[in-house]
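Troubleshooting: if your tokenizer reports a length mismatch, compare your output against this known-good record of 356 residues.
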Amino acid sequence: MPNRHTEPGLPSLLKKLGAMTAIRDTYLVEQSLLRTIGPLLGVRETSLYRVDDTGTIIRVLNHSRSVVTEENGVQRDAERIEEVTNDQGISNTLRGLLDNVRLLGKSCSRKIDDGLLVCYPLRGDSKLCGYFVFQRDREVTPVEDAIIHGVLEVFTNYYELLDTSQRDHLTGLLNRYSLEINLDRLWNLLSARLHESDNKNSRRDTAPQTYWLGMLDIDHFKKINDTYGHIIGDEVLILVTRLLEKSFRQSDLLYRYGGEEFVAIIAANDIGAATQAFERARKAIEQFTFPQVDHVTISGGFSGADPSVLPQEVLYRADSSLYVAKNGGRNRICHYDTLVKEGILKEVASGSIDLF
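Known-good structure output:
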């Protein structure tokens, strides 16, 4: 007598894996993972939890499918992707399950009111880097378990290959190509939040601007290379990178933009908090003693990541503010809107910038 729960078909699985490995964006690959396993298991909601080196959840990606009825009575499938950049809203039940998976190093499940909550570990470079979570009304079969493990292994290996291609080989930071991809994604996220705020009849001018883009540059780096050689110059780049990584939060994005330039995209509630974050990074480098070179400084400029302005223009604003910092004596951080208000910079007309 046939099993009433049909196991996932191999042709369908191979087709989905082929589609996943055709993607060249790490974020879209994560989405593809959730889109792939959910239908194979017959579940409508799947989640991916990313953790840092300490095991703290830094990002959550939720994927859900539902049936929507149009005005004409026609039904269609609809999907929703949501991203959260913190661990808020996680239930105690789920936290306990994640702890079990972390401690045991294998998949675990826990009974809840509507069935079972199932969690699988994600591993990269032989360490835990996240969790795959879903809910269903029955235990995972041995065949399903093997398929989940196989898909997660393919995903992890391919994700690491993509991640490597989007990182700078010297510093390990995300590179300029990755920046272009993430700028578009971040702006889509900001626009979505603004749209939700408008739907709730919130005033746009009272909505907090929570993301900031900064351009940072090592002062007199050419002189360092000319005086001490490129090997020492590379050491300075690596040390500056580590100091920046330590200064900013794990959830902030840091890129090597090219040469001795870096781009940071950070979250801060207001201009005061953003200034404090960039100043903390500047001071960390100023106070550090570099081998042979002794002291090194950086200059920087930053601007609010306004979703109503193209990301290329915000990058240009940060870059213009950086040049003001350079011309003003270096070893300082300048804010674009402040410079405009003081008449030091003139605001450029929207749509007139093309950096990429």
